Amino acid sequence: MFVPKRIIFEKDSLEYSMAKNILNRFKNKDGIEIIKLTSNKIKQHIPGEDLFSYYREGKKTLVVGVKKSLKFQSCKPSAHYQLPLVSGCMGQCEYCYLNTKLGDKPFVKIHVNIDDILNQAQKYIDERLPDITIFEGAATSDPVSVEPYSYSLEKAVVFFGERKNARFRFVTKYNDIDSLLDLNHNEHTEIRFSINTSSVINKYEHFTASRDKRIEASIKAIEAGYPVGFLIAPVFIYDNWKEEYHDLLLQLRKKLPNDLKFPITFEVISHRYTTTAKNIIVQVFPENELPMNDEERKFKYGQFGYGKYIYPKESLDEIKEFFMKEIEELFNNKEVKYII
Ligand code: SF4
């Protein structure tokens, strides 16, 4: 669970019950600064003279605000729309795509007007009837670490559970899902857990849940009847990578119940980076040991107009062959969505 160092309440946010609950929960806790704004000028309340320090202070900051624009971003190919419950994440993963996307806004922000957000979702659902509309809850955030006091996912899960023509999904590296287990989700919410080997987690991730805690949470979600998937990402090639990814999959296999209601899904994504991301990462994590030597990678133009450095073809083929074989051998009821 995210325990912030400072909480900034934007103008008007305290009119909402979610903000009041957050204030009541944290206002008497030692070491947590409470800032109530009469404007929405957040940046001046987060210390930091450069990207390095601003990132670290920003990551310890919770902003509570009202989502003004209710135009949802599209979220292809995994969903039709992003559901903007939360933005940002308490984690400090060196390779995280949010470093580029939210570089100047590293804080976690909870949107308290969840009723407006869900009403807007209803409009998008109605527009696409009779087709099913899918919403992604973690496109620019990991909403799980604030769930114990935002209850945003809880509201969304219940909302989508009641709607025949809508589905919800989110992905997480955290395990704070206990409050979601007894909800009437109606199998309309898919929870995906992003997992990796302990070596990768210990080396490149900071302030995320351990491998085993994520697996434990995934088993609870399966037992609560949710469709569950695993994102193995990013996959790195390093000494013993095959042994360690095998061990990861084996540990998962050992803990999975035998009577799965839904196939377990797998999405496997090899490590890649853009030049923009690399330039930010070297400032925020100057000591990082991420493999980002352009000469050792293949440059690939992406569909969004910028190129990225991916592993060369022989390595990608090896990754694909390895995961296909391992997943095929270890899991009975499964679906491999893609290995890229
Ligand atoms: Fe980024 Fe996910 Fe790590 Fe959060 S947990 S910093 S969203 S990679």
User: What class do helices, strands and sheet pairing give?
Assistant: alpha/beta
Q: List segments where confidence is low: pLDDT < 50 over at least 5 consecutive residues.
A: none
Global mean pLDDT: 96
% residues in beta strands: 15-25%
- Rough outline: globular
Each distinct ligand: iron/sulfur cluster
Oligomer: single chain
The fold-level CATH name of one domain is Rossmann fold
Helical content stands at 25-40%
**Annotation field: number of helices:** 11
The whole-angstrom Rg is 20 Å
CATH class of one domain: Alpha Beta
How does this model look, in words?
With 340 residues, the chain is α/β, with parallel strands linked by helices. The protein has a domain of 179 residues: Rossmann fold, CATH 3.40.50. It is 34% helix and 20% strand. Helix 9 runs parallel beside helix 11. The structure holds iron/sulfur cluster. Iron/sulfur cluster binds next to loops. The site of iron/sulfur cluster has 10 residues, from loops. It holds the Pfam family SPL. It comes from Clostridium carboxidivorans P7. One of its GO terms (molecular function) is DNA photolyase activity. InterPro entries: rSAM (IPR007197), SPL (IPR049539), SPL_Clostridia (IPR034559), SPL_firmicutes (IPR023897).
Write the layout of secondary structure elements.
Elements: E1 6-9, H1 17-26, E2 33-36, H2 51-58, E3 61-65, E4 81-82, E5 86-87, H3 98-101, E6 108-111, H4 114-128, E7 133-136, H5 147-150, H6 152-161, E8 166-172, E9 189-195, H7 198-204, H8 211-223, E10 228-235, H9 241-255, E11 264-270, H10 275-284, E12 298-301, E13 307-310, H11 313-330, E14 334-339
Parallel strand pairs: 1-2, 1-3, 3-6, 4-7, 7-8, 8-9, 9-10, 10-11, 11-14
Antiparallel strand pairs: 5-6, 12-13
Helix pairs in contact: 9-11
Iron/sulfur cluster binds next to loops.
GO molecular function: 4 iron, 4 sulfur cluster binding; DNA photolyase activity; S-adenosyl-L-methionine binding
Protein name: Radical SAM domain protein
